[in-house]
What we know:
Blueprint: H1 5-8, H2 13-19, E1 22-31, E2 34-42, E3 53-62, E4 67-73, E5 86-91, E6 103-108, H3 125-142, H4 146-151, H5 153-181, H6 185-189, H7 199-205, H8 208-227, H9 230-234, H10 238-287, H11 311-317, H12 320-323, H13 328-334, E7 337-346, E8 349-357, E9 368-377, E10 382-388, E11 401-406, E12 418-423, H14 440-454
Antiparallel strand pairs: 1-2, 2-3, 3-4, 5-6, 7-8, 8-9, 9-10, 11-12
Amino acid sequence: MKNNEVLAEEISERDEGALKFLKDIKWFRIENPKGFKLEFYFDTANPYFKNAVLTKTYHMIDEDEPILEKAIGTEIEWLPGKCLTQKILKKKPKKGSKNTKPITKTEQCESFFNFFSPPQAEELQSLMEQDYDIGSTIRDKIIPHAVSWFTGEAAQDEKVEGHRLLRHILVPAVFRFFASELGFWSAAMGSNNKDSFNVADLGSALNAEDRAGLVNALKDKLQDLTGKHSDVLENLSPDVRKRVDTLRDIQAQHDELESKFFEERAVLEAKYQKLYQPLYTKRFEIVNGDVEVEGGETEKSDQEEKGVPDFWLTAMKNNEVLAEEISERDEGALKFLKDIKWFRIENPKGFKLEFYFDTANPYFKNAVLTKTYHMIDEDEPILEKAIGTEIEWLPGKCLTQKILKKKPKKGSKNTKPITKTEQCESFFNFFSPPQAEELQNLMEHDYDIGAPAGEGPQGERPPECKPQ
């Protein structure tokens, strides 16, 4: 558990003595109410508390998109003087006090075992979310991959994922910086098109010494990361090492089954995507007024109102993430949005969003705007890059830029106003995603915007944006 970053933060040095008596962790689903339960089994020789089993139960409002209703933990029966969740402070009485005895005060202290005293409904939601993170980490990471966490390999895998982002995003940025600073930009690029830059381009521009120095620095960092998990194995006795090797074989069998699970899940998802199709077609027809529902057109009016006006605009504005991206100026264009579709792409892995607009849209020529996400890892969404449609704005209708006119300075020979174009906040900036040289947090923010339309909690697409 200490090799997992989430759990390591919860375990104090005082906790380690008790956790050495932990023999096993199990979990299982519960049905009424929905949720899951964790069970921690301790050796009966444990000198800290009487309980042989400590449990933690999560009741979920919605299990698919984990919304926690409440959590219930075991009341720990601490043995005298062994409570790890509280500490006793003794203070000297104030001068002149009639009481000459030390004042004893009990304070809560940080401990993993506070996990079994979860926050109640009246406490801050953030505490409940943190509490759920710990439980789901145990369920989804520690239990199925306990051996890998023991050896540190699982922790290393997470660091490697971080390295992938470093390699795909930050390394090109570093190369760009070096090229620019050292005057190699034009040689590396071979043109003025910065978007066509890649690491190989710079390889021919940097001299051997510069290139070797940068590569060696990155290589040293990688070796430092990949070598750490072996320390645990090297420090084991021969007998324990044999047992761990056997456990690793068991883990490999588990991972093989898990791989089959992912394969079968992909087939099942594809099956249901086809079954969803007729429903999305019906939704499209009703929203856009292509068909009338039974019992419709009950009132006659001078202005004919077709379908469901502003359907997608309203839907997106009701999402907290998307609402922050939509400016008042954007709303006029988004009223012409007729449909949103998504589908998976296989080479490279990822998914694509398609936004369909009415041809009467007076803002741009495009009938369809797209956004494509290329993923390093699709199961744990790690973004490699995103590609958006270039919008063909009609004259004077660009929503991503504003034109500023400034008066010339006094005494200037130029008497005409100075015109300056500035980028402005707009949902349509979404189709001009950040490039590799920009900060990683911009790419993550960009992915967050796409996720509500393309992906819901725990990798499930919400109904309104499933593939069509």
